[in-house]
Specification:
The chain is mainly β and 216 residues long. The protein is built from three helices and twelve strands. It has a single domain, classed as Double-stranded beta-helix (4-Layer Sandwich), CATH 3.60.160.10. This is AIM24 family protein.
């Protein structure tokens, strides 16, 4: 059976061109900046599709808004001059902050995953967005993202404000260095970190968004 596949191509570092031949992609709501050919835009919501997705959104508060873009031609996506990175998934799961997901192939499944205190420290709630399956997705970051490898026996610590996404078999633990000195205004601004262990990749941006942890 012949399957249509969207073609993802970066135009510089801040614009994503997606060529469609009758297939569809999911993109951040309002991120289309230009297109040629025939395109149709339909608003969707994050947290997964269908009734389960609707219930998930109500329970988790994950409010990523996306649109389905379907047609023939090339559609160009960008958001506030953010830098864009492409990720190819081969049957694995991408964990990404909803604000950092620009576009994904229509065949990829989206949902939510519990992040616990890590999410709370980022001010993004207790859940994050997941993208599963085989295909391409595009991430946004404030500055060019770097990809850091985590291997068994070599854990990685990441500032919650710089974290963008991760893939692979990784366990994440929330670490806090809050002490009495912190409470007396002698904190370093690095009181909260995420520790990744296992085997996988972590995407980090060269900029720290405002977080609860960064205020302590």
């Amino acid at each position: 059976m012949f399957t249509l596949v969207a073609q993802f191509l970066l135009q510089g570092s801040k614009v994503l061109a997606v060529t469609l031949a009758g297939d569809a992609v999911k993109a951040k709501n309002g991120s289309m900046v230009a297109y040629d050919g025939q395109m149709a835009f339909k608003k969707m919501s994050g947290g997964g599709e269908g009734l389960r997705g609707m219930v998930t959104r109500r329970l988790t508060g994950e409010q990523m808004t996306v649109m389905e873009v379907k047609g023939q031609g090339t559609c160009y996506f960008a958001d506030r001059a953010s830098d864009i990175s492409l990720v190819r998934l081969n049957g694995e799961t991408l964990h990404v902050e909803s604000s950092n997901l620009l576009c994904a192939e229509g065949t990829l499944r989206t949902g939510t995953a519990f992040t616990g205190l890590r999410g709370a420290s980022q001010g993004n709630g207790l859940f994050t967005t997941t993208v599963e399956g085989s295909g391409q997705a595009a991430l946004m970051s404030d500055g060019p993202a770097v990809i850091l490898r985590v291997t068994p026996g070599t854990p990685l610590q990441v500032d919650p404000g710089a974290y963008v996404a991760h893939t692979g078999s990784l366990r994440q633990d929330f670490q806090s260095g809050v002490s009495f000195r912190t409470m007396f205004g002698e904190g370093s601004g690095e009181s909260f970190q995420i520790r990744f262990e296992g085997d996988g990749l972590v995407y980090v941006q060269p900029s720290e968004r405002n977080t609860l942890g960064g205020e302590i």
